[in-house]
Design brief:
single chain, alpha+beta, Ribosomal Protein S5, domain 2, Alpha-Beta Plaits, 2 domains, 6-stranded mixed sheet, 11 helices, globular, binds adenosine-5'-diphosphate, binds magnesium ion
């Protein structure tokens, strides 16, 4: 039996308050930060995320019927539904992730059982560190475990089911990266994911560096419509390029040289969107090579170039994200910094030489707050473990 930490114990106390008795298990799934490879996932490309030491967890015990009763601590609200009558619920939004995951797991062929549990998370919500995927994956592992089928699906299948739930049941158009890294992350490792084949490769996170994440706390209100518009622009780029490159099915298949050669087929805006995606895929592979060679300066340079490309070509940065990145880069120990996640708000991530984390943090509080008149949050996290379920004694 593994010892449980303070947070799990606290959630178990909540469980005792809202249900009679004790939970039998805890399912834990982390949030994530993407080192590089932004807006590449839905273009069948490459991403390089790490799992964070922040997570959503659910303590639970199985039921013998098909009823699911979950209490969410941060929302002080209930999801209470029957697995045989799943329907979108506008009043309790978070419950749709739970219902969606249940629906998608059954679609994937697993017969589920009910459970009762308490959900609680410390992944900042709506900040681009993917609290939604952490919620989905923790719920998926809890549902599978309660059904006595913890090994019915592979990690990849669980991630796909959770993405399907978010796309179809919740109605959010996301790629596969977040669910994938939350499920399959590993301590000390980044994960190179091929978002077409879903092949993945562990890439050791360098000993000499840390991640510092700055949360702009700025509104992401533009993010949804812009995200859908960018996706449409990428599709338009592919459709036009197919007239001369019939074998391509996504921007993943296009090289920088091909894009330059055929740029005349594209409107200036669509060309710039495509140039970001094609260049970003190449930067992910260059980052993996630089990490393998221990060349952290090069990794930092690639992260900086990624930010410039997201700002100028893909146009998904914001004053707040640019101010955050400037603040991070003002410290000499910062090797590179970029916006992370979909953009328009949320977080930026810096790769920082060990020992300089504090200085970067101080610079963020000092400079960002002055530039934007917003008090930010700053997190540091090692590359952490992916999702797991453990018994509670
Ligand atoms: P992000 O994934 O970037 O954090 P999203 O808007 O995609 O932002 O997901 C945030 C939503 O996920 C929240 O509004 C809530 O519905 C759900 N969620 C996240 N964390 C929790 C939690 N601890 N408890 C219940 N629901 C949560
Ligand atoms: Mg999300």
């Amino acid at each position: 039996m593994q010892p449980h930490d303070k947070r799990t114990e606290e959630i178990c106390s909540e469980f005792a308050k809202v249900f009679d008795g004790k939970p039998t298990h805890v399912a834990i799934a982390p949030g994530r930060v993407n080192l590089i490879g932004e807006h590449t996932d839905y273009n069948d490309g490459f991403v390089l995320p790490v799992a964070l030491d922040k997570d959503v967890r659910v303590v639970f015990r199985p039921r013998t019927d098909r009823r699911v009763r979950l209490y969410a601590v941060e929302f002080d609200s209930w999801a209470d539904f029957d697995l045989d009558s799943l329907a979108f619920n506008n009043d309790v939004f978070w419950a749709n992730y739970t219902m969606g995951v249940a629906w998608a797991l059954e679609e994937a062929g697993v017969r589920l059982a009910g459970l009762e549990g308490v959900v609680s998370g410390n992944v900042p919500r709506g900040s681009g560190l993917s609290s939604s995927a952490a919620l989905e994956i923790s719920n998926a592992l809890a549902l599978l475990s309660a059904a006595g089928a913890p090994d019915a699906l592979t990690g990849t299948e669980i991630a796909k089911a959770a993405q399907h739930a978010e796309n179809v049941f919740v109605g959010v158009n996301c790629g596969i990266m977040d669910q994938f890294i939350s499920t399959l992350g590993e301590e000390g490792q980044a994960l190179l994911i091929d978002c077409r084949s879903l092949d993945y490769q562990r890439v050791p996170f360098p000993d000499g560096a840390s991640l510092v994440i700055g949360n702009t706390k700025a509104s992401r209100s533009l993010a949804n419509s812009a995200y859908n518009e960018r996706r449409a622009q990428c599709e338009e780029g592919v459709a036009r390029l197919q007239s001369v490159l019939p074998a391509i099915t996504a921007l993943r298949d296009v090289t920088s040289a091909q894009l330059e050669e055929h740029s005349g087929l594209l409107s200036p805006v669509v060309y710039r969107r495509c140039r970001h995606v094609v260049g970003e895929n190449e930067r992910v592979m260059a980052t993996v090579a630089a990490l393998a060679a221990g060349d952290l300066d090069e990794v930092g340079r690639l992260m900086n170039t990624s930010h410039e490309s997201l700002r100028d070509d893909y146009a998904v940065s914001s004053d707040a994200l640019d101010a955050m990145v400037d603040a991070m880069r003002s410290v000499p120990g910062c090797l590179g910094a970029r916006l992370t996640g979909a953009g328009f708000g949320g977080c930026a991530v810096a790769l920082v030489s060990k020992g300089h984390e504090r200085a970067v943090r101080d610079a963020i509080f000092e400079r960002y707050s002055k530039a934007m008149n917003i008090w930010p949050d700053v997190y540091t996290s090692p590359a952490s473990a992916g999702a797991r379920v453990m018994p509670i004694d």
